Amino acid sequence: MATADMSSQPATAMPMVEPFIRQSQVVALSTDNFDPKKYIDFIPPSHIYKMSDLDLPEDTGVSPVAVSEPFQLFSHEAVLRMRAEVLSDETLAIVSNIAGVDLVTEMDFEIGHINISVKSEQQKAEELVAYAEKVSTEADEGIAGCPWEDDKPVVDWHTDSYPFVCVTMLSDCTGMIGGETALRIGNGEVMKVRGPQMGCAVILQGRYIEHQALRALGSTERITMVTSFRPRCPSVRDDTVLTTVRAISDLSALYLQFSEYRLEILEERVRNQLKALREAERGGKRTNVRSLKDFLKEQETFLAHMNREIIEEERVKMGNIDNSHLLTNNDAN
């Protein structure tokens, strides 16, 4: 490829801008294929909370699993090249095992999105000073107050559009304070799951649990990758909605992929039902009318749900997400 000769160009003074996200950790990385033995550093979570642990019925979602404690999933080098990799079968098996149900990525549109939160060294220092003063004051006065960062969450109370998410930490969290995920449990109280360390992940059945991301102190960056999942089996219900993503997405691409996988589920269900009807007929059995009507009713509900989620583009207020995704009507929302 030809390159331009820049030797005759006049020098231009560049402003001295210090980047928030430093590149000092960028090293020469191998370009070999994804090797699970090299890049997966799996250590099981210390605990997996069930729906019942949150005072929620176990049949609230598609699995009795609610949320896991952070667990080591990827090695340090794998994190540094994460954006260049695709989820392997081995990784998907681990995520499915932790979730308690066989999962696949929701759709190509949601293989992964990156959340980036940055602040300057000055902001970091000011937050730590304020936090230390609050802790000192409460200790002197004997007050058992809430941590300072709880009052200003990064993301307020919400439910996800998709059944499960896997949140992977891509930042060094050494010295970081806070950063937990707060869960609103069945009795209205709040339970916190600690934030993962670099290379660790958290599995959450976020479609059925209201949660918020709490702020983290002591670091200039917090970068996470979120991958959304749904059940693989077509007979398992799919409660995916587009509430929290519709207003911030390319609607043509979103609706296409949402429709494609949902219609593939319907196609597989119809094929299985047709097979069952034919096998029953060959076996000399009468048609089970009640079972057939139950199947048809289920597919009517499936299609009606799908139709509700696909809203005409002219009716979508881009950038505006309402509270219809919330499970509770709480003034604090």
Describe this entry's structure for a reader:
By secondary structure, the chain is α+β, with helices and mostly antiparallel strands. The chain is built from six helices and 15 strands. Strands 1, 4, 5, 6, 8, 12 and 15 form a seven-stranded antiparallel beta sheet that branches. Strands 7-13-10-11 form a four-stranded antiparallel beta sheet, with no helix packed on it. The protein has a two-stranded antiparallel ribbon with strand order 2-3. Strand 10 (181-184) and strand 11 (190-193) form a beta hairpin. Helix 5 (251-282) packs antiparallel against helix 6. The radius of gyration is 24 Å and the shape is elongated.
Which stretches are poorly predicted, pLDDT < 50 over at least 5 residues? Answer: 1-27
Beta-strand content: 15-25%
- Judged by helices, strands and strand pairing, the structural class is alpha+beta
Instruction: Give helix % range.
Output: 25-40%
* Mean pLDDT across all amino acids: 81
Rounded radius of gyration (Å): 24 Å
Q: Using DSSP, what is the number of strands?
A: 15
Report the total helices.
Answer: 6
Specify the biggest β-sheet.
7 strands, antiparallel
The succession of helices and strands, N to C, reads: HEEEEHHEEHEEEEEEEEEHH
Question: How many angstroms does the end-to-end distance come to?
Answer: 56 Å
What shape does the CA trace take?
Answer: elongated
SSE diagram, text form:
Blueprint: H1 36-39, E1 40-43, E2 48-50, E3 65-68, E4 71-74, H2 76-80, H3 89-99, E5 103-105, E6 113-118, H4 121-141, E7 155-158, E8 164-169, E9 177-178, E10 181-184, E11 190-193, E12 200-204, E13 211-213, E14 216-217, E15 221-231, H5 251-282, H6 289-309
Antiparallel strand pairs: 1-4, 2-3, 4-12, 5-15, 6-15, 7-13, 8-12, 8-15, 9-14, 10-11, 10-13
Helix pairs in contact: 5-6
